[in-house]
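HUMAN: Would you supply a protein with C-alpha cells?

ASSISTANT:
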Amino acid sequence: MHAEITALREEIAVLKAEQRRMACRLQESEDYRDLMNLQSAYGYYVDKAMWDKAADLFAEDGTLEIAGRGIYVGRERVRAYLTRLPEYGYGVIFNHMQLQPVIHINSECGTAKARWRTFIMIGWLGKEARWGEATYENEYSRENGKWRIAKLHGIINFYAEYDKGWHKGGIPLLRSVDGLKPDLQPSFNYEAYPEPVVAPFHYDEP
C-alpha cells in the first residue's frame, strides 16, 4: 500500500510539472502572437501616417532611433518625432512592410527582443518614388498587461530611386529632423548602400 501511495504521489508530481510546462508554453505562444500583432500594427499605422496611433504602441519610457538620426526617449518624444514625418493623402505612398521576424521572449520577466526586416515603398505623385529596406532590432516590455515597444531601432540598409534602381547607387541618409533634436546620440554611425552595413544582432543563434 505504501508503495502504491508513493507511486501515486510521484505521478501527481510529474503531472503538475507537465502542467506548469504547458502553461509556460501557452503563455509564450500568446506572447508571440501579441508581439507579431504589435509590430505589424506599427507597420500599418506608419503606412497611413497615423502617427498618434503608432506612438501609442510605445512604452511610456520607450525609445526610437531611425536612420542614424539619434535616439528619442519617451513616448511623447517618439510622438513628436513621428508627427514630423510626411502626411498621408492623395498621391502619397508610404508603405513599410514588417517581415522576417526572429523573436526571443522572456514571458516570466515580460520582456522580448526581435529582429525584423522592413521593405519600404515611398513616393509622391509626379515628384519622386523610392525603394528602401531596413533592419529593425527592437525590444519590448509588458506594460499594464499589454506588450509595448520598449526600443525601436531601424537601421536603413538602402534607399534608391525607383526609376534608376539600386544598381545606380543609393541615396545618402537624412541625418536630422527639422526642428527636433534627438535626446541621445546615435547608437553607432553608418552610411547606407552602397556602403555595407550589418545591423547588430541581439542573438547568436535563432
In short: The longest strand covers residues 128-143. Helices lie at 2-47, 51-55, 75-82.
